[in-house]
Design a protein that fits this description.
5-stranded mixed β-sheet; 790 residues; globular; mainly beta
Length: 790
C-alpha cells in the first residue's frame, strides 16, 4: 500500500480551484490469478483491451478484506487517488465536498457498470464546469452500488480501450456485477465497531428451471454510523465531527437467462439511498477556544456598512483572511442538523445475440434516475440590513458591534453537541437556507456487433444517450424555483484487434463522439442554448508484445476529445473575450512486465498527456481592467506519471507487494497571457513549481499478507514524505491498516478490521477556503464482524 498525492480541485476562487486542492490515498497491489499470455488479468470484458496498466480487484479479495465500499477497495491500486473530505456525504455541486477520483493525477475518469457509462452529461454533480479545474464525470463511487453486488472491479490507467470514449483520459473504473451460479447459496454479513458503525448485508443467488438456465442474484444491505472521530494534525487531539452520522440502504437484483452458449438475457436493477450529515469541514482544535471563537465570529459576522448605514458585502471570510473560519461550519451538521440525501433507481436490460472468441454482440437499453437533496441551515451572523436595523435602530459603532456580538453571538458553545444546540437556541434559533433537489436522468440504447475474421477480432458499437438534469428549490418565502438542462449524445467506435503473431497484437480504432448543445429551461420558461452541437473523430492505436514467457510490453496512443461542460458553454475568457474551446490533446502509455523468477515479478508503467486545449481558470493580466482577473482560458498542459510495482512470494503462505508512484504537471501559456506573480504561494510565482511542490516527493507502499488454511491476515503500510506544509499539517504521514479473517467453520467466518492502526493524524485533501487540516481523516476505527454462508 502507498499513500499517493495528486491535484484535485476546489471552488473557493478561480485560481484556487485549479491549484490549491490536492489529494492522497492508499494503494494496494494484490497478486491475481487467471492471466493471459501477455500478463493481463482476464475478466468478462477484457476483450476490449490491448495491453495497458490494468488492475483487477476480484471477489476473493473483497471477501478476504471485507471492503465496506467501492472507494475502500479501489483506492488500494497504485496511481488511483480520492479527494475525500474525511466524512460521508457532501454538498451537491461542490467538488471538494465529495468523493472525487483521479488516476495518475487526472480526474477525467470514466465510471462504468458492466461496461456501461454511468455519468450524466447534463449533471452538476461535483462540477458542471471544466474551467473550475474539476474534470470529473460527476460520479460519487460510493453511491453507485453496494459491495455485495460487485464481482470484480477493473481499473484501467489511461485511455486503454476504444470502447470507453475519447474523454477517458485519466482512466476507467469498470464495476462488474455478480451473476448467480449453478448452486443456491446465501450469506449474512454482520459487523459493528467504532462510533456506532454497523453493517448488515444479505445475499442469495442460484439457478432455476429444469436445465438451470435461469440464474438470479439478490442482495440487500444497510450501512450506518454515528458521528466520526478525527485526529487533529496540529494539536494531536481527537475530536468528534458533529453531524457526520449517516445511513445508507441498498437492494440489487440480477436475473440471467442462458438460451444457449451464444445467446443470453440479463436484467439488472439497482436501488440505493442514503441520508448523510452535512459537516462541511472538521473543526480546527487549536482555534476551538473562547477567545478565537469570538475573534472568528466578529470577523465574519457583520458586513461592511455603506454611507447610508446599510450592510453591503461580507467581512473577513475564508481561512486565509480569517484563520479558523471553517470552525463555524461545525454549526451546520452538529447544531442545526443540515443534511444531504440521495436516491438511485437504475435498470439495465441486455440481450446478447452472439458470442465469438470471447467477444459479445448485444443490444442494451438502460435507464438511470438519481435524485439528490440537501438542506443547509445556519444563522450565526447578521447577514441582512433588516437584521442589523432590528438590533441597532440608530446604527452602531465598531465598539458597539463588538460588544453586541460578544454578548449575543460569540459566547463559546463548548465542545459537545448539546452545548452547541443550547447556544443555537440562545442566539435566536435557525434560519434555513432553501431546500434543493436535483434529479439526474439518463436513458439510452446501445448496439454492439463483434465478429472474428481470420486473425482479426472486430468490434463495432454505437450508443445513444439522452441526459437531463432537473433542479428545484423551495425558497424561504415558500416560492418554488426550478429549471432543467438537456443534452443528447451519440458515441460510436470500431476497433480491430489484429493477432499479428502468437506474440504480437495490435489494435487500431476510430471513435466518433457527438454532443448536442446544452438546452437550459429557466425558471421563467425561457430556453437558453449553448454554442451548438459539437462532434469529433478520434483515432486510437494500442499494441502489446510478448518477448518470452516471462516478459511483455505494451504501447498506446490516443487522440483526446472532451466536450465543454455546462458552465463552459456560456463562458468567455475574461481577458481575450473569446469563447472557450473543447478540450483536445494526445496521450501516450508505455509499460513493461517481467517475471524475475517464479516468486518475483515487477511492472513499470509510464504515461504522458499533452493537451493543446486544457481548460483552467487562472489569474491573468487584463489590460481593460488594468488588473489581474480570474480568467477561464484554454491553456497547454503536459502531464507525466510513473508507476512501478513489485510482488514477491516468500513461500506458500507469505506474500509481499510494493509500489511507487510519481506524477508531474506543466502548464504553458497560450495567447500571451501573463500570470499574477502574487497568486498565493510565496514559494514561487511559477504555476508548474507550485503544483508539483505541494505533492509529496516520495510515495512508498508495502503490503504484507499471510495466509495459512483458515487464517488470512494483512498489514498495509503507507508512507509518504516531502509534503508541503502549506497544504498539510505535516511533511510526512505513516498510515497502517490491518485485517484478520478466520474461518471458524466452512460456513462461518469471523473478522477484525482496523483502519489507521496507529491513530495517525493526516489529511487527503486541501483547499485554501477551509484551510490546512480542515479535511482531517478519521482516527483509529475498529470493526468486528461475522459472515455466515448457507
Amino acid at each position: 500500500m502507498v499513500m499517493l498525492l495528486s491535484m484535485a480541485s476546489t471552488s473557493y476562487a478561480a485560481f484556487d480551484e485549479n491549484l490549491q486542492g490536492y489529494t492522497l490515498d492508499t494503494v494496494l497491489v494484490e497478486a491475481d490469478a487467471t492471466k493471459d499470455k501477455f500478463g493481463n488479468t482476464i475478466t468478462e470484458q477484457s476483450y476490449y483491451r490491448t495491453g495497458g496498466d490494468v488492475k483487477v480487484i476480484t471477489r476473493e479479495e473483497i471477501e478476504k478484506r471485507h471492503y465496506t465500499d467501492l472507494t475502500e477497495a479501489i483506492k488500494r491500486i497504485p496511481g488511483v487517488t480520492f479527494q475525500n473530505p474525511g466524512y460521508r456525504g457532501g454538498e451537491y455541486g461542490y467538488e471538494f465536498y465529495n468523493n472525487g477520483v483521479s488516476i495518475n493525477g487526472d480526474t477525467r475518469v470514466i465510471i462504468l457498470v458492466d461496461g456501461r457509462r454511468v455519468d450524466n452529461t447534463a449533471s452538476t454533480r461535483i462540477s458542471s464546469n471544466s474551467k473550475t479545474g474539476s474534470k470529473s464525470t460527476g460520479v460519487n463511487l460510493d453511491q453507485v452500488t453496494n459491495m455485495e453486488n460487485v464481482e470484480k472491479i477493473e481499473v484501467i490507467k489511461g485511455p486503454g480501450a476504444s470502447v470507453y470514449g475519447a474523454d477517458a483520459l485519466g482512466g476507467v473504473i469498470n464495476i462488474i456485477t455478480r451473476k448467480g451460479g449453478s448452486n443456491n447459496v446465501g450469506s449474512i454479513d454482520l459487523s459493528t465497531g467504532s462510533w456506532d458503525k454497523h453493517k448488515y448485508a444479505l445475499s442469495y443467488s442460484g439457478s432455476a428451471g429444469n436445465d438451470k438456465s435461469w440464474h438470479y442474484f439478490i442482495s440487500a444491505n444497510r450501512d450506518m454510523s454515528g458521528d466520526t472521530k478525527y485526529k487533529d494534525g496540529y494539536t494531536g487531539g481527537t475530536g468528534t465531527l458533529g453531524g457526520s452520522k449517516w445511513k445508507e440502504d441498498g437492494v440489487n437484483l440480477r436475473i440471467d437467462k442462458d438460451f444457449n452458449e451464444k445467446q443470453s438475457l440479463k436484467i439488472w436493477y439497482n436501488f440505493k439511498e442514503g441520508k448523510d450529515g452535512y459537516p462541511i469541514a472538521t473543526p480546527s482544535l487549536r482555534y476551538w477556544n473562547q477567545a478565537d471563537w469570538q475573534r472568528i465570529i466578529f470577523n465574519a459576522a457583520i458586513g461592511q456598512l455603506d454611507g447610508n448605514n446599510k450592510i453591503v458585502g461580507g467581512k473577513l471570510s475564508g481561512d486565509l483572511k480569517n484563520p479558523g473560519y471553517h470552525n463555524l461550519y461545525a454549526l451546520d451538521g452538529a447544531a442545526y442538523g443540515s443534511f444531504s440525501r440521495f436516491k438511485n433507481n437504475d435498470w439495465d436490460i441486455t440481450y446478447t445475440f452472439d458470442k465469438e472468441n470471447g467477444m459479445e454482440s448485444f443490444v442494451r437499453v438502460y435507464d438511470q434516475n438519481h435524485r439528490y437533496a440537501h438542506r443547509d441551515k445556519y444563522k450565526w451572523n447578521l447577514k441582512t440590513t433588516a437584521d442589523y436595523e432590528a438590533a441597532f435602530p440608530t446604527g452602531a459603532t465598531d465598539a458597539q458591534l463588538q460588544q453586541w456580538i460578544n454578548e449575543n453571538l460569540a459566547p463559546f458553545p463548548g465542545g459537545d453537541q448539546e452545548a452547541l444546540k443550547e447556544w443555537v437556541e440562545k442566539t435566536g434559533g435557525v434560519a434555513a437556507e432553501p431546500t434543493s433537489w436535483h434529479e439526474e436522468k439518463n436513458r439510452g440504447v446501445q448496439l454492439q456487433y463483434a465478429k472474428s475474421v481470420g486473425v482479426n477480432d472486430i468490434i463495432a458499437s454505437i450508443t445513444y444517450d439522452k441526459a437531463k438534469n432537473y433542479s428545484k428549490r423551495i425558497n424561504n418565502d415558500g416560492t418554488i424555483t426550478s429549471s432543467h438542462v438537456d443534452r443528447k449524445s451519440i458515441l460510436g467506435y470500431i476497433q480491430d484487434k489484429i493477432h499479428i503473431t502468437d506474440k504480437w497484437d495490435i489494435t487500431p480504432a476510430i471513435r466518433y463522439s457527438k454532443y448536442s448543445s446544452f438546452d437550459t429551461t429557466n425558471a421563467d420558461g425561457s430556453v437558453t442554448q449553448g454554442k451548438g452541437d459539437t462532434h469529433e473523430i478520434t483515432p486510437v492505436i494500442n499494441t502489446q508484445y510478448m518477448f518470452d514467457d516471462t516478459s511483455s510490453m505494451y504501447l498506446g496512443w490516443t487522440r483526446v476529445f472532451r466536450p465543454l461542460r455546462q458552465g463552459d458553454y456560456t463562458s468567455v475568457d475574461g481577458v481575450f473575450k473569446t469563447p472557450l474551446l473543447d478540450e483536445k490533446g494526445d496521450a501516450w502509455t508505455l509499460g513493461v512486465r517481467k517475471d524475475l523468477s517464479d516468486k518475483t515479478s515487477v511492472a513499470v508503467h509510464y504515461d504522458w498527456t499533452k493537451m493543446s486545449n486544457a481548460i483552467a481558470t487562472l489569474p491573468i493580466w487584463d489590460d481593460t481592467k488594468a488588473q489581474f482577473s480570474n480568467t477561464a482560458v484554454n491553456a497547454k498542459e503536459d502531464k507525466k506519471s510513473f508507476n512501478i510495482t513489485a510482488d514477491h512470494k516468500f513461500d506458500e503462505h507469505v506474500m509481499l507487494s510494493a509500489s511507487y508512484s510519481h506524477m508531474k504537471d506543466e502548464w504553458k501559456a497560450k495567447n500571451g497571457w501573463v500570470l499574477d506573480p502574487d497568486w498565493g504561494y510565496q514559494d514561487s510565482s511559477d504555476i508548474n513549481v507550485a503544483i508539483n511542490s505541494l505533492r509529496p516527493q516520495n510515495h512508498y507502499s508495502l503490503n504484507l499478507s499471510y495466509e495459512n488454511g483458515k487464517l488470512y491476515t494483512g498489514l498495509l503500510t503507507n508512507w509518504y514524505t516531502g509534503c508541503n506544509t502549506r497544504a498539510f499539517t505535516d511533511k510526512r504521514f505513516l498510515v497502517l491498516d490491518w485485517n484478520l479473517n478466520y474461518e471458524i467453520t466452512k460456513d462461518m467466518t469471523a473478522y477484525v478490521l482496523v483502519s489507521n492502526l496507529t491513530n495517525e493524524a493526516y489529511e487527503t485533501s486541501y483547499n485554501s477556503w477551509n484551510g490546512v487540516g480542515s479535511s482531517a481523516m478519521p482516527s483509529r476505527c475498529i470493526m468486528v464482524g461475522m459472515k455466515y454462508k448457507f
